[in-house]
Write a structure and sequence with these properties.
single chain, alpha/beta, serine acetyltransferase, domain 1, UDP N-Acetylglucosamine Acyltransferase, domain 1, five-stranded parallel sheet, 7 helices, about 10% strand
Length: about 270
Amino acid sequence: MPKEIYRSYVCAHANLPPVESTQQFVDELVMFMFPVKGNRTVSLKSLQKELRRLRFRLSELLYPLHDDSEDEVTQVVETFFNRLPEIYRMLLSDADSFLDSDPSAKGIEEVLMTFPGFYAISVYRIGHELQMLNIPLLPRIMSEYIHGKTGIDIHPGAIIGRNFFIDHGTGVVIGETTDIGDNVKIYQGVTLGALYVERALRDQKRHPSIQDNVIIYAGSTILGGKTVIGHDSVIGGNVWLTNSVEPFSLVYHQPQIVIRDKKDFIEPLNFFI
């Protein structure tokens, strides 16, 4: 890259939030809400001290994005931390869903400390709140960070209701304009995506709506901004949907499975791997 172009590129992108500091902030915020995740015992005094430190850390991340406007940064920080108790309550309800839905969960501490689905939802809810405050870049840095750690890709612009459950999680994709209701369960490999990608569609609803009490099993793909999965429906594994389904629907894919006796199978003399 020529020096002149490189110099103009750096100048144009000088006011960007540091990626590592953003990642550290979101991890520290999750551990602040759930100290057990950091294997810590905390007192009220230490929590108050940590809260002041986190407020300062968020301010540091916001200053480059607001041209060093102290008033704007202060307002955003105040609004965000005023919303933190509600984020915490929603995450507690999410954690209860994990405990109720997964027979392998032996206690709430196990969910908080070890379940990647809950970790991804925690970071999503933090990033989503910042997204709603029109903060650029920070929410996406957070979502891509957790994507790399868990294999779960949730755009911070998606709207997700209470009691959300993601089991196993690897390969889950939830697009920007997805709208998910309450008490929804999603398993690994599920994609809630767009029918196609085009820049002109950036301000339109491109991803599906999932109503309350829906279960979507592993490997299913649901596409399109006009696609609505009616409440209390069950979408079976490996289903491909681009059309809406009515409430209380059971949708499943039934592949043809052939079982043969291995003794009757003649192995070819020549084969390639």
